[in-house]
Every structure is written in C-alpha cells, then in structure tokens.
Amino acid sequence: MDGWAGKILDIDLSSGSVKTYPLDEKVARLFVGGRGLGARMLWDEVGPEVEPLSPDNVLIFTTGPLTATGYQTSNRFSVTTKSPLTGTVLDANSGGFWGMQFKKTGYDALIVRGRAEKPVYIEIKPTGVTINDAQPLWGKRVREVTQALGQNDHRRNVLCIGPAGENLGRMAAIMNDGQRSLARGGPGAVMGSKNLKAIVVEGKQRPGIDDDERFKFMLYETRKLLRASPLTSQALPEFGTVVMMNIVNNIGALPTRNHQQTQFEGAEAISGETLTEKYLVKNASCWACPIGCTRISKTDKVEAEGPEFETTWAFGAQCGIDDLAAIIEANALCNDFGLDTISVGSTIACAMELVEKGKLDADLHFGRADLLAPTIEAIAYRRELGSDLAEGSLRLATKYGLPELSMSVKGLEMPAYDPRGMQGQGLLYATSNRGACHMRGNMLGLEVLGLPKLIDRFQVQGKSSYVILHQNSSAAIDSLVICKFTNMGVADEYFARTLTAVTGIPYSTGDLIKVGERVWNIERLYNLREGFTRADDTLPPRLLNEPVADGPSKGWVSKLEPMLKEYYRARGWDEQWVPKPKKLAELELVNLMEAAR
Amino acid sequence: MIDERIYEQFREIGRDLYVGDLISSHGGNISIRVGDHVIIKRRGAQLGRLKMHDLIETQIDKNDSGVALASTELLVHRKIYQMTPALAVVHCHPRTAIAFSLSRDEIVPIDNEASYLLKKVPVIWEEFASGTPEMAKNLATMLQSYKIVMLRGHGSFAIGQTIDEAFHWSSTLEESCQIALAAKVINEPFMEYRKMSEAYNKW
Amino acid sequence: MPSRKLFGNLRQIAGVSKVETQGATVRQAIETLCANDTALRDAILMDDHLRPYVRVMIDGHDIELAQGLVTLVGAEDQIAVFPPMAGG
C-alpha cells in the first residue's frame, strides 16, 4: 500500500496507553484519508450516547495518501470529532506544515481518547511517542506555546489550543504552525476537555509512491495548469481570498448586520484592494504550494497572517464595521486565543442585533470597531457576557429569547454569502452535514465567478445537481487531503490519476467522486444516528421569509423547499432524508445503515 | 416546466454545434441532468433550431410519459448519468475525428490545446449505431475516466458540469484532428515541443 | 453618464477605481475607457471578447446572462469590471 503509511496511532490520555495498529486496507480504499477516513473511524468510536465534551469523545487527526508526497498542496490534514457546537459529525482541515510533518512520523491517523488528569502535550518523534507535562503552558496563548515548543516549519511542528479551548468555548479552534486553524465547530473545546494542550511532531519517513514516473508527470502537468490559470497564478497570490469582498457585495449577496441587509456601504474599506494597498506586508504559502494565497498584514498594533475573506466579512460587514485595521487585529487575537473567526464574528453580530431589538442589555452595537477586541477576549476567557457568547450564536439567541436571530444551520454560523442572492449556496448550507459551510461544495464558482460557466444565481431548477457534484467532489478532495484552491485550476481527473500513481490502486475520476459521495453519506448516516432529522436541513427564517429590501437581489428569499425536494431525490434518499438501500449498496455502506437503525 | 435559462443553453450550444459543422441537420444530441431527471432533445428535432417544446424531461432511472418522445439515444445518456458524475452530455459527429477513429484505438492529440485539455481520447467500437445496453455501459465506463470518448465511425460523447463544458471538449477534439490531418498532409518530421508528452499515451 | 468601477489589478493598471464613461453598449463603454490605455484593454479584452474569468456587471447583474458585450447601458447604470478572481 504505497501512499498510506499503513499505521494508526492510538493514545488514551486517561490511562496513558499508546498503541499502534494497522490501517485496514479496505477502509483505506473506500474512504482514502482525511475527512473520509476520519468519518469512518468516528462512526465506530463515538455513538449517540457520548457527550462531545466528555472523555468518551475522541479527536481523530488524519492525513491522506497524497499527504507529504510533494504533490501540490499535499500539506493538509484533518481533525474529526463530534462537535460541541452542533452535535453533528465534525471535521475541520488545515494547511501549513503540521499535516505533512505528522505523516512523516509514519502514521496515517492519530486518535486521542480519554482525559488526562493534568494538562499534557503529546510529542511524536522518530525515537518514540511521549505524553509530557504541559502545566507550565496551560493558560498561554497560541503564539507563545508554538514558539515554546520549538516550532520549526520544515522539521518540528506544533499544534495547540489557546485559552478558548481550555475554557471549553464552543467556538474554539485547534491551531497549527502558529496561525493556521482547524476552526469550525469547536474542535478546540474537545481538545481542552481532554486536558491536551498541544501535539508536537517530528518525522523522517517519506510516503512510498507506486509509480514514480507517472507521479512526476502528474506533478509537471499540475504545475503547468496552476501556472496557466489566472485564478491560481494571479488572482489568489495577488489579492488573496479577501478580493471576494467587492464582487460579493456588488451582486448583493454580502450579509450585512447579521443578514439584515445584503450590501455593505463600507465594503470598499474592508476589501482585498484596500488590504493590499494599506496593510499587506508580504505573501506566504503552505508547504509544497505554488499558489501562495496567504497574506501577512500589519497594523500599528500587530503583524499577522490573514485576514481571509470570511474573517474580514464576519468582523466587517456582518458587524457593520468598516475599520480594516481593527479587523486585522481581531483576526490576530482570534488566532492567538484559538477561536473560529466566522462563528465569533457572526455571534457578536447576533448579540448586536439582540441589543438592537431590546432583548439584551449590553454595550454591543453595529459599527463599533472598538468593541471587537474586548469582546473577543471576553469570549476566550468566558468573562461576563463573553461566557454566553462563547456558546455560539444559537445558544446565545435562544437564551435571550430570539433563536431566529442566530444566522446558523444546525448551530454552525453561516459564512459570507447570503442565500437569498445565491440560491445554490443556500441549498449547500442547508444540507451541509457539519452545519452551514462554504467549504463543502462552494457555489461561488458557478453562481458568481463563471467557473467553469456562469449559472444564474437565482435559478432554482437543476441547482441540486451542481450542489451534489460539488459536495461530493469537495468531500473527495478533503479525503486526499489537498487544498480546494488547486481545484480552481486543476480538474478532479488529475487528482484521480495522481491518487492512482501514488497508491497503485486504479481510481477513475468517477471512482474519486464516488469516494466523496460515500463520505457525504456516512456523515449523513452519522447525523441520523445522532437524531437529526429532515427538519434540520433548513435556513434561518429570515432568509426564507424576509425578501431582500434593495440592491441586485431585491425581492428575493431563499427558495429552499423545491431545491431540497430535488436534492433528496437526486441523492437517492427518501423523503425523511434516509439513504435508500439501493444507494447504500452502491456505496458499500449497507452494514453501517443496519447499525444506524 | 423547463426553466427558460436551461432552454437558452440548449438553444445556443445546439446552434453552435450545427453552425460549427459538428453535426448534420438532424444529427447529434444534448442532454443535462436535473436532480434525478434528464432533460434531452425530442426525437427528430433539429439541434440547430431548437424550440422550447423540443426539450423533453424524463427520469434517469425510471420510464415515464417523457420516454416515448425522447431521442432514441436516451438509453445511452441515462447510462452515462447513472455511472458517471456528468451533469451534461454532448453527442456530436466531428468529421475529422470520425475519420481518425476508423483506423485508431485512441486519438492522442499533437497540438497544444488538445494535449493540454484532453491528453488522450479513447475509441470504442459498437455494432449497432443506435446503441445497445452493452454499448451504453462500455461507453459510460470509459467516461468514468475520460471526459470525451469516440465511437468508431459514429461520433463523440463528451461529459461536463455544463453543456458548455462538454461542447468545449467536443470542439477541441475536432480542431485537434483537423490539425493532425493537416500535419499528415504536410508530411514532414514531427518536432516534439511538449515536455513529458510520451506520458499522454498512458493517460 | 454611466459610471464604471474597476476592481483588483485593473485598478492598479488604470490608476483609478472609478470613472465616467460613454457608450450605448458595454463594448462601447469599454472601448471608450481603454482608448488611450492598451494595458487596460489587454487586461479586459482578448481579441474582441472578454478575457476568461473577467466579469462585467451592470448594477450587480452579470452581462453574460444578458446580451454580453452588446448589452445596452443606461445613463444611470453602474458598470463594474472584475479581473479574474478567486477565493472563498
């Protein structure tokens, strides 16, 4: 089995036991790695009786067969757990260097279970695995911890939580290599609940490659395509992701002030153009990435990675704030405390609207940039109102009597596209297994950028087909694991052929997409077993009932119901969104369904 | 009801296929996947002159009232949607590519554009032009790995996310074959300009 | 007079972010704008077509879903031109 390391590392923090066992070959073939492998392992490990923040929940860190091979963007890895924010299956993935380094320790996956008595950190080195005392590090922020544990991009890499994870905040991220994050859904709280501060990796083993010659050819062709595409060779490196601000605002799909409007008058001030002109210091890139979309920006107070588009929107338009320096600082703070910027920004916006509506008495108001930093700190340390905010927008809004003001799906805050102005994106959010997410089949390419071809963003008929294809393709890419931005210049058929060259197992393009479909379905089965129902595939009432007041999306609500109907049928699920036996047989998931009943 | 914007895509690409000499007056076909349905040209309708009522909607897995009206190639299109991630299928009769398909088991482009986009186009053989279940299955199997496949002496089947994309592969193949034909006529030694091009044969 | 907004690197090339322009169609508006600026024209058009991934919108609506470059422009319309961009 080339590509895969062939081994899983299993650490129980309650007993201190460290075990190794082989990766099942059939599981590897069917689920590949990353998100897929994580979902398959979580299925066996964590049932509906397990509370997300109890010792019985697990953290599963996975890489894939392409990880560390040197294939473009083969730096990524994934964490899978039951989410303390949503209660759904959760996986979050991240780039940087840690994933590559972990794979080089000779494992495909690390499963961490139990709870240590006192704060510890795990160290995985060629000489062995140790569980070490982390009491001096407890309470410390991400940058300091990362440095203290000897981060060295190419040789020794640190993954850790900050104060937010220690304090079990439901929006807590796990951070790697200092400023990269596994952010969504609160995996940092799971790590905090285990008294696990950090995982440090040093590796020397290179993954095997089945067909070296074909692999080199795929490397060459991929490089050529990434260079030829103006998206991956110019757009991303020149302006980073935040260049989306103006275009999404221009079409009237930029959620503003907790989705009360869809255009923000201050968009220009927080755009990629402004960031580049005023605050950009330089670009950076993850391991083995020729694209380099990372920004390093600098204000009077901080110099830090980012901010990305979603972050800039969450603290910007969503909070009615047009002060880019304050947003850069808010982003840096979140990274240092270990917090998910999308959820934090949108939860603050939710609180601001609760105040506006007279439901909450607090000094939180749309447009007030000065409130960001203190509020973020209060969330990280759960101080006063911060303790309510740390629970995420849905629990917050429910507590203060207006749950409909939480702009979330299944409790996960929505990213920066208003479903009323992008109908397909709304279907994507509603059906996404980990809650509202743009990384699970983004419709941005088809509905806005014309990639590969512009499809009317208000069209409803046929949207399910696009959403399903992109959900499956995203799940496959997340299982390899590589970066979705490569997909802007390189089609799935290249990934399938690269996977074949690396593993020696023939995967057609169709097979690869089928892997993604299998992953999507096992995640759906997991949520089903947890008690989620069709009613959870929905959007906040505002998006279904309140037409956009003006701008290019004027008059539109999300026409979710007809899209959902088409979607379920096309997925091969019944009206209660249970996958039909024929579909499960096709995906080799029959046994799992029986267990789910 | 078929969305007008979907009809518009059919109309534009249908006309382009005819005007671009990729089909004869009544030849070729286009379809798209809409959920668990397929929208396909009506039997006997001309692709170059499609009207809204020339489009038929029917199910991918089951027969319904639409089937009788749909093109005879519905079987093949359905099989492709069942077996591949395709959201659109373009079937046309690219003349030079058909000529090459008569003497080759695969077409490996020599021009830059098609090398870049297609790498290699397999040719498969069918006994009955209108398509048998076995042929449909063979073709769909090939389309799991390749975005365009030639049927020997008949024409091409291309898949994509959109009709536009499948049309792109179709016209790229024909252009490439015309270039290859011109190179044959010139008949001078080929100077390889593409690095690692020997790997295209194994694509 | 219709106004035009430029984004991304088009802004750097043109040296401005907003201009007034003339022309009854999008094509005329672009040609007028680029009359003295071949670099800007090259960044927007290739031969006589829009470059791949360049997006042109009138009041937030993409011209590809209207009549493309021959889409009519009204006096009050705002045209936005976006270079190839990606993100999310």
Tell me about this structure.
The complex is a heterotrimer of chains A (597), B (203) and C (88). Chain A is of the alpha+beta class and 597 residues long. In chain A, the strands form four sheets. Chain A has a six-stranded mixed β-sheet with strand order 2-1-6-3-4-5. Chain A has a six-stranded mixed β-sheet with strand order 8-7-12-9-10-11. In chain A, α1 (25-31) packs across α2, α12 (324-337) runs parallel beside α14 and α19 (463-480) crosses α23 (560-571). The longest helix of chain A is centred in the C-terminal third of the chain and has 21 residues, at 509-529. The relative contact order of chain A is 0.12. Chain B has 203 residues and is of the alpha+beta class. Chain B is 36% helix and 18% strand. Chain B is built from six helices and eight strands, in the order αβββαβαβαβαββα. In chain B, strands 3-2-1-4-8-7-6-5 form an eight-stranded mixed β-sheet, with helices on both faces. Chain B starts with a helix and ends in a 17-residue tail after the last helix. By secondary structure, chain C is an alpha+beta fold. Chain C has helices at residues 9-14, 26-33, 38-44; strands spanning 3-6, 18-20, 45-46, 49-50, 55-58, 61-62, 78-82. A five-stranded mixed β-sheet of chain C has the order 2-1-7-5-6. A two-stranded antiparallel sheet of chain C has the order 3-4. The mean pLDDT of chain C is 90. Chains in contact: A-B, A-C. The interface between A and B is medium-sized, with 37 and 29 residues.
